[in-house]
Amino acid sequence: MGLPRLRRSEAREVTSMVISRWTKARSASALPPDSVALRVAQLESVRRTAVPLYLACAANVWVTAVLMQHRVPPVVLLAGLVPVTAAAVVVVALRLARRAPGVTEQAVTRGLTWNRQAVLWMAVWLVGWALALYRYADLAERVYVAHFATVSLVACLVCLTYSRRSMLLAVLAPGGVAVLVLAVSGEPLLLAVGLETAFLLAAALPVAGSRERNLRRLVLAQEREGRSQRQITDLALNDPLTRLPNRYTITQALDSALDRPDPRATVLFVDLDGFKTVNDTLGHQAGDVLLAEVARRLERTARRHRVSVGRLGGDEFAVLLPHDDRARGEALGSEIVATLSEPYDLDTARTARIGASVGAALAPAHGTDGEALLARADIALYAAKDAGKGTVRVFDQEMERRLTARIDLEAALRRALADEERVFVFYQPIVDATTGRVTAREALVRWHDADRGWVPPNQFVPVAEESGLIGDLGRLVLTRACQDATTWADGARVAVNISAEQLGRGTLVGEVREALAASGLPAGRLELEITETAMFTRAEASTQELAELTALGVRVALDDFGTGYSSLSHLIAFHIDKIKIDGSFVRESSESPASATVVRALISMAREMGLTTVAECVETEQELERLRNDGCTEIQGYLYGRPEPRPQDAQYVQALNTLRPRI
Length: 663
Fold this sequence. Notes:
CATH topology of the largest domain: TIM Barrel
Strand order of the largest sheet: 8-9-11-12-13-14-15-16
Keywords: Membrane, Transmembrane, Transmembrane helix
Largest sheet: 8 strands, mixed, barrel
Structural class: alpha/beta
Low-confidence stretches: 22-29
Number of strands: 17
Shape: elongated
Distance between the termini: 90 Å
Helix content: 55-70%
CATH superfamily of the largest domain: EAL domain
């Protein structure tokens, strides 16, 4: 079969596309005619070729003068010998003296202009001198003189390859005159020489043009290589998003500052508070905009104080101070916290607020090695966050001791979870406020370490969340709670706490399905307790997960209500069945009329919305009576029972209680 024929319109489109791509390819590989790099390369090429060509021309003139001395008057000979020889001497002298123009644009332009004018005059002079000799020569000598003029013109063209106009001028003016003289000589031999000269000069133009194109390609390749090298260097030394120096550059600068007989420096380790929430809720693009604005604010502050700033990675930055004045370092740290805590306009419709914490380390007091100083500033930063964020802390040895203890605690917890050894689930009853019947039991994790004894949950749960162990810990509690609930004769529900690190990651629904299927517990008997703060860590994904769990029949309780992002719309949007009134309101309601009013308002609101209410931390009959009168649905607290292990663990737990901690 033959190839299908294209319609005329299709052929035009194909042709247009080919021409467009060819034009783009040429423009991508083209240099602007006024490129400084190209002019420098052109001048360097002229400098390399000028000396041998001027010497060749001078030698050619001397040979011709010797050959023609018996026929030509001395004055005519000297008219060729003196200027050409002088020009060659000057060029050689300049080359030997290395008096090349500088690399400024003006100097390069002057050098190329001088060369163009000098070469054009040289071409005119040599051809003119050849025509002067031509008058005195016989036929054979005229042939030689013609070849002399041709060779001289070609030599001049080599020095003019960077200027197409000058090349054409040299070919058409002196070259054209020489060819014309030979053409009208009436001698067939001279006519042949004239034609040969014309062909040679015509061929010299594309050859010279090719040489110029090759030079352009070489310069373009060098410029591309230079740009690539600069980009590689830039990426190696600077952060691509914020354009600040990166960790490597900061560490090198710090090492240089410390590599002195008496090193004095301060490192401020800056970490953003709440950036992760912005990144998760508004998206990574908004997070990048926020980081860029943080960098600009830090740069402005650094310029005012004449200090250095860089990005270490993520939402961490470093500021280097050229002194070890603790008071000045803390003052700058506080200024940074205040500056970074101001609102950020991400775009025309969205504004974000974050905070910052700062850790400081001083040299030589806290170390004289860059990485060590950064590490200790990081330890101080951890202490600042532990103190409530939005503050500045300076490193001390006690911080390092606490951090080491935390690392050891994490390692011990990791081993305990891997072996499922001495990790228990205790249960605290939740009762009906009117009848006193147990309606649910809250599953509370407890851990006994062989060295530390019973570790309080408020110590190891945050460690699990920060280290990524919360997923394993949460699955263990969920699985055991569902299994244990199937053994309860009263059919009470089991309530399991869900961490912010578990919610909204796309794994919770599958884990709940698996735990229910493995235990056989009906979904209606499982309650998941979440905090308002946890829901808003990844709001959109959390809403989807809670909707799926509700569809399964699982109940959702809002824990510590009133202490987070409290909003009536949250109770509807997140499919909440129950609210748990934070124990702080319950305890203070006996002494504080304001707290008592808050508790009544929460209970009344929940009743109107058809939600169950649970009052936490109820310990006295007086508190119970007041909550009953207010209409609270369920009660949890020491009044009805402390957290207790399941029956099969009770004897083991009692034995552990008799052991003394080793550390």
